[in-house]
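Researcher: I'd like a candidate sequence for this fold, 427 residues long. If you have to choose between options at a position, lean toward the conservative one.
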């Protein structure tokens, strides 16, 4: 079978390496992939957002299956376009992808179907938003751009001045383009965060092993928010009792809500949860695998990923086995100095052979790398993810950090405390 994976980051690399385990897949393609993915799949020079071109290419080259990994092509309807050509794909339709693409949509959905989330109001008029803030007595408060904003459209405002600024920048200043013309202002929640990815075909919901992202750029959760500087799985805060409660109060009601809205969700639904003193609440939904959560979740998946994906597409997820190892995984992201703000690209990466670290008990997932003149160079903010599995979280973290020592490039920045909070919480 010929399979195309759309996207070009660490998450896509983790998906591709897992798909390679299935012997039915004889040819794997990635659009656009990246330098390191190039060792595992044939690269197609199309950006993930070129949905018309990708659908046409998939038709002309007779793809048997397509995995659409990033949010943008899902929101742009790539899965719908492939369906028109008779090509089965993993991922939600554009209508179902709204659960991530519009925060106003997802908040209204949760309100309508009584799914626990932060209290909120939606605004399309800047004066109304300002009046709401002027009357607010509880700080901090959270201002969110409605649309996709590369994970940067959420601002936690400590003071009225900060909140007014955030609203002005988004609604008048056009900081996130059209994504910010509508804003959601919501209550600030506290508690440990948990990421849960779940396979669903609209009939069955199968949560994967839980994980914990580390979003801030610097140790001790300081510095700016990033796309994610590292992950661990499972998340020790996510106890069996909480998991059961989430299934009953959040996961199954979300599946039913999307069905009731005529937007059946098929693919990987990502629940960003906060375990508040009042119980688990949804911080955000994503319509796709998380990055870098995928880099710790998929290495723990013992069942065959492609079998599960096909079952999701064919709405028979309930018939296949989805089994996870009882061990733990850790992924440490190696980023370009300066990320998530200004950083340089094109730095030569040393320590890798054919994209991997020889002799280390770890897998290297490439996020932002390129091959230039026979050398591997950096090409993005997040460059590599060093992932390891072990029987315990401590051992997995130690292995990942030990392996990371073998890789170098100018300006390399990583956090040195990935997993520290989880380990302190007791695992
Ligand atoms: P999001 O892009 O919605 O995941 O938000 C990014 C991050 O902002 C989350 O991972 C949380 O750490 C934080 N955040 C978002 N909404 C809230 C909230 N209502 N209360 C507290 N923190 C929040
Ligand atoms: N790790 C968070 C995300 O994928 O959006």
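Model: Candidate sequence:
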């Amino acid at each position: 079978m010929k399979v195309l994976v759309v996207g070009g980051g660490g998450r896509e690399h983790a998906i591709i390496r897992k798909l390679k385990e299935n012997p039915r897949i004889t040819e794997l393609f990635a659009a656009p992939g990246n330098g390191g993915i190039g060792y595992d799949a044939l690269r197609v020079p199309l950006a993930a957002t070129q949905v018309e071109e990708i659908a046409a290419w998939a038709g002309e080259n007779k793809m048997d299956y397509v995995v659409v990994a990033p949010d943008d092509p899902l929101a742009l309807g790539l899965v719908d376009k492939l369906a028109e050509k008779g090509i089965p794909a993993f991922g939600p339709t554009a209508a179902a992808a709204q659960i991530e693409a519009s925060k106003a949509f997802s908040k209204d959905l949760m309100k309508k179907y009584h799914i626990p989330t932060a209290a909120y109001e939606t605004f399309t008029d800047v004066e109304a938003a300002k009046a709401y803030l002027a009357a607010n007595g509880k700080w901090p408060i959270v201002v969110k751009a409605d649309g996709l904003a590369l994970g940067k459209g959420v601002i936690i405002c400590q003071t009225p001045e900060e909140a007014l600024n955030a609203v002005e920048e988004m609604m008048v200043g056009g900081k996130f383009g059209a994504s910010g013309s509508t804003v959601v202002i919501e209550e600030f929640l506290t508690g440990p965060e948990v990421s849960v990815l779940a396979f669903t075909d609209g009939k069955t919901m199968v949560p994967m092993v839980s994980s914990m992202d580390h979003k801030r750029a610097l140790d001790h959760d300081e510095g700016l928010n990033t796309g994610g500087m590292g992950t661990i799985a499972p998340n020790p805060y996510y106890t069996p009792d909480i998991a059961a409660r989430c299934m009953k109060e959040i996961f199954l009601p979300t599946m039913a809500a999307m069905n009731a809205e005529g937007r059946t969700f098929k693919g990987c639904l990502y629940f960003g949860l906060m375990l508040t003193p009042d119980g688990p609440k949804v911080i955000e939904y994503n319509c796709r695998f998380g990055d870098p959560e995928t880099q710790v979740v998929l290495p723990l998946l013992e069942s065959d990923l492609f079998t599960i994906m096909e079952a999701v597409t064919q709405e028979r997820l309930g018939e296949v086995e989805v089994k996870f190892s009882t061990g733990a995984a850790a992924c440490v992201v190696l980023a370009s100095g300066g990320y998530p703000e200004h950083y340089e690209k094109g730095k030569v990466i040393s320590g890798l052979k054919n994209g991997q670290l020889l002799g280390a008990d770890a897998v290297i997932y490439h996020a932002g790398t390129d091959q230039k003149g026979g050398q591997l160079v950096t090409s993005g903010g997040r460059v590599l993810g060093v992932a390891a599995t072990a029987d315990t979280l401590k051992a997995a973290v130690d292995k990942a950090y030990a392996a990371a020592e073998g890789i170098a490039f100018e300006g390399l920045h990583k956090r040195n405390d990935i997993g520290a909070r989880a380990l302190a919480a007791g695992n």
